[in-house]
Amino acid sequence: MPVEARETVPVLNADDVVRVRQAVRVRAVAAGFSLVDQTKIVTAASEIARNTVDYGGGGTLCLELLREGARRGVRLTFADHGPGIADLDRVASRPS
Predict the structure, then answer these.
(1) pLDDT score for 92
(2) What sign does the CA torsion over 32, 36, 42, 48 have?
(3) In this structure, what DSSP letter does residue 93 have?
(4) Number of domains in the chain
(5) H or E element, residue 4
(6) What's the start-to-end Cα distance of the chain, in Å?
(7) Which of 13, 38, 49, 95 satisfies CB 3.0 to 4.6 Å to 28 for a cystine?
């Protein structure tokens, strides 16, 4: 889906987590998300932003509004400065 708008939000501290929530809500509303879907994406973004601060040493959110014809969406890409997961295959194959 083509990108209609892009914004980069720093995620370095608790105040930035609040800014992430606000920015994601604005984009979700602009994309025409229902209230339930707005709540879901804002909650997910808040959790990931908090983890970015607490475990990743801070980072950024690239927030994109997508549009293709009548279809609209929001893409969130978080990047942090943490060490990552040493054995990703082991984590991915863990039973639930």
Answers:
(1) 79
(2) negative
(3) T
(4) 1
(5) strand 3-11
(6) 32
(7) 38
Q: Give pTM, 2 decimals.
A: 0.86
List the CATH number of the domain containing 74: 3.30.565.10
Q: Which range marks the domain in which residue 68 is found?
A: 3-92
Residue 71: what residue type? R
Ranges of beta strands (E only) in 40-91 are: 59-68, 71-80
3-state class (DSSP) for residue 12? coil
Cα separation, 45 vs 9, in Å, equals: 12
Q: How far is residue 25's CA from residue 63's CA, in Å, rounded to a whole number?
A: 11
- Using one digit for the tens of pLDDT, what is the confidence trace for 28-45? 999 999 999 999 999 999
Q: Which residue shows structure tokens 């720093």?
A: 10
Ordered DSSP codes for 28-39: HHHTT--HHHHH
Spatial CA neighbour of 71 closest among 32, 24, 45: 32
